[in-house]
Amino acid sequence: MSVRELAEKTNQAYQKFLKQGSTKLKNEILESIAEGLDCNREFLAEENKKDLENGAKAGLSTAFLDRLALNEKRIQGMIDACREVAQLVDPVGKIENMVFRPEGFKVGRMRSPIGVIGIIYEARPNVTIEAAVLCMKSGNAVILRGGSNAFHSNMALTKILQEALKKHDVDPNLISYLSSTDRKAVDEMLVQDDLIHLIIPRGGEGLIRSVVEKSKIPVLKHYKGVCNIFVDKYSDIDMAVRITVNAKVQRPAVCNSLETLLVDESIADQFLPNALQALQDEGVEIRGCEQTRAIYSKDVISATEDDYYEEFLDLIIAVKVVDGLDEAIHFINMYGSAHTESIITQDVSHAQQFLKEVDSASVMVNASTRLSDGGLYGLGAEIGISTDRLHARGPMGLEELTTYKWIVIGDGHIRE
Amino acid sequence: MSVRELAEKTNQAYQKFLKQGSTKLKNEILESIAEGLDCNREFLAEENKKDLENGAKAGLSTAFLDRLALNEKRIQGMIDACREVAQLVDPVGKIENMVFRPEGFKVGRMRSPIGVIGIIYEARPNVTIEAAVLCMKSGNAVILRGGSNAFHSNMALTKILQEALKKHDVDPNLISYLSSTDRKAVDEMLVQDDLIHLIIPRGGEGLIRSVVEKSKIPVLKHYKGVCNIFVDKYSDIDMAVRITVNAKVQRPAVCNSLETLLVDESIADQFLPNALQALQDEGVEIRGCEQTRAIYSKDVISATEDDYYEEFLDLIIAVKVVDGLDEAIHFINMYGSAHTESIITQDVSHAQQFLKEVDSASVMVNASTRLSDGGLYGLGAEIGISTDRLHARGPMGLEELTTYKWIVIGDGHIRE
Question: Which residue of A has its CA nearest to B115?
Fold first, then answer.
């Protein structure tokens, strides 16, 4: 089947599901997927083993193979995910802001599915299930395309997904998999803008930039997280140290961890020795500006300008002394990646100014950047975090996988 | 100045305006623009005359020259637009859905500007003012690029816009104009995705497709309006005729006018003779399916399949008899352009099914498709109508020119 044909079939399945896809049916399908995964643990392990063996032969890294593995814990995680998504409120059909207009008709907005969503991701087979169930619960059809090293695992998972759809008389093409391992197949998918309505790439920056370059379809993406914390002159120093350490070391390899620490010069003398010592106690490498090194010099490397743009994703931090809130905001809007930033302050005006002027997806007061997360924000499961500014910004849950339509209820109303 | 430099300067102006752009200041600037237009009526007329004379020499059509003309009425319209936009509620800073999370911190969303918006449009100089003031009021910077036949008019208008900004100590690059008439300059603008955040093209389908093809920046667009009305078997026939005639003839050249009329076969005998006679009385050409022609044959041309995809923008209508609501919905989702559709029915279940399953930007019950309009929906001024599914769908007002950021207020909260 060509990519065009696959997109056509998926689009047709979407159209049918517009009519068929009640909340009850969607939740029943989710339970059937959970059961399908549960009954096929052995089959999944066998298929996954093929990928793992091929990967080992091909010399893939241990970390890569770890992400590829469908062990018992990951399979249970996928089963749990299906049941958790079944518990989430269905956003489709929700009517917002319905009002009577002066002319006597009613106008409002109804949440509705986006349509056909293409998900392009790496060799992490659990994403196959998580992406498919979130798209389906929000009434969308999906075309999945995972990394080719997970081919056998993804084929097995797709079989389970499609069997569950068939069991409920739903067109199995609602959850399609682009099985060609030819890279050109992805390029071809990205130009089907009459059939596919959104592309969500998940992976490294190179993959994402290449998708944006080639796609005629709108793309929702996550480039990187260069998160900043600014310690204001009116901050509680103990709190500032505690939040800084948490944001840097609690899980350094993820996008919402801290990369650059800014501090007001009038509090730097008191804050930096405590904070940098605490970071070093946790094994963090410090790259400081000249003022930082003048205050605390022990094992502090000199920071370069490039360090302030860098997403270290590791136990490394850049530290800079600034002359106040205005410079901090300017610095963050210039060097940051508009992901998540936090101010530590007890001053209400400074907090308000930071919230208003920092131009990022998540802006915080007295909180660790690690709290930037769909689950913690109350979205339930998360399809990803957007660093885009349109449609969805920051963590994306079920509602961010929908759009709206205007609904108008008249009683013979015409345009005069 | 290169396109890159222009984009950089506009982006810098945007950053400064994040801090500076209070509602009060924005409204004062709008009043200064209105005054600037009012004081410069003669200057505008002179500059516009250059464009009109060049256009006449180049053999442009009367309709083209009419759209290009800045007559007294159009100038007054621009002045009024500035003052109307000043009256609209400023969406920036509005906080939505603020809640305490179980962990004890607060999370909500704050409306914020999108950033730098590029507007590409045809030789209609009044769009220069309307687009600029809507973008500015919503806190955005804008790069304008109008049709080259309006060059002198647009330079004059840009001068007035920038003088008003300077008067209030705002960086005049907040409202920039891409003055190179080289088409390559537009292509270059479309790849500055680190500096420009949104492109809104306004014009013919060819222009828009070319922008989508070349742009690395997200595009919000309006392709076309192939609007449908379905007359259900439970409809009030007088109402159905009145709405049909209004939707087709009240202003046939615009996107929300009716193009295809569908009727349930069980009511076609009663409805079609009345409706088609009434349309013909207004000078409408009828293109009917075989069943339509069997019921009413007088001057009814045979419809081809292409007619159902066609945006006539003229006194022409396609008419088709269908075997019920399901076929009507399927037909609309297949042939329509997902702009605006209406069902005429007295049956609540049919109305609900139509609202749920028709996959268009505006879906109506017992109303003329001509009501699909930002002003009538209560949005105030309208930057355009989107046929996209992401970010904004249907009429776009000030709020659709904003995005949101997540705000988190903690009290020392960290990730455990």
Answer: A389
pLDDT tens per residue across span A122-164: 999 999 999 999 999 999 999 999 999 999 999 999 999 999 9
Yes or no, beta carbons of A407 and B101 under 8 Å apart: no
Distance (Å, whole) CA B121 – CA A177: 40
* Residues on chain A touching B243 (C-beta within 8 angstroms): 412-414
Determine whether the interchain pair A363/B239 forms a contact, defined as Cβ–Cβ distance below 8 Å: no
Contact B217, B197 (CB under 8 A): yes
The DSSP code for B89 is P
From chain A, pick out residues whose CB is under 8 angstroms from the CB of B345. none
Q: Confidence class of residue B26 from pLDDT cuts 50, 70 and 90?
A: very high
A-B C-beta contacts closer than 8 Å: 228
CB neighbour list of residue A364: distance below 8 Å, 6 or more residues apart: A340, A341, A342, A343, A371, A372, B407, B408, B409, B410
Structural domains in chain B plus CATH codes: 3-221+396-409 (3.40.605.10), 227-375 (3.40.309.10)
Interface test with A, best of B96, B105, B382, B389 (most A CBs within 10 A): B389
Q: Which of A143, A138, A121 is nearest to A11 (CA)?
A: A143
How far apart (Å, rounded) are the C-alpha atoms in residues A385 and A378? 14
pLDDT per position as a tens digit, B64-85: 999 999 999 999 999 999 999 9
Average pLDDT (B148-154) is 96
Q: How far is A212 from chain B (nearest CA, A)?
A: 6
- Inter-chain touch B412–A355, beta carbons under 8 Å: no
Contacts of A368 in chain B (CB under 8 A): 410, 413-415
Which phi and psi (to 5°) does residue B263 adopt? -140, 140
Alpha carbon distance B9, B4 (integer Å): 9
Phi, psi for A184 (deg, rounded to 5)? -65, -25
Position A47 pLDDT exceeds 90: yes
Gap between the Cα atoms of B286 and B296, Å rounded: 10
Nearest to A365 among B378, B393, B410 (CB): B410
Q: Which residue among B389, B406, B414 places its CB closest to the CB of A377?
A: B406
CA–CA distance, A225 with A222 (Å, rounded to integer): 8
**Cα separation, A306 vs A210, whole angstroms:** 23
**Which amino acid, one-letter code, is at B105?**
F
For residue B21, which residues of chain A lie inside 8 Å, CB to CB?
Answer: none
B218–A408 C-beta distance less than 8 A:
no
* Whole-number average pLDDT of chain A: 96
Chain A's closest residue to B249, CA to CA, is: A415
The pTM score is 0.93
What DSSP string runs through A261-323?
A: EEEEHHHHHHHHHHHHHHHHHTT-EEEE-HHHHHH--TTEEEPPHHHHH----SSEEEEEEES
Would the pLDDT of B181 be above 90?
no
Q: What is the ipTM of this complex?
A: 0.93
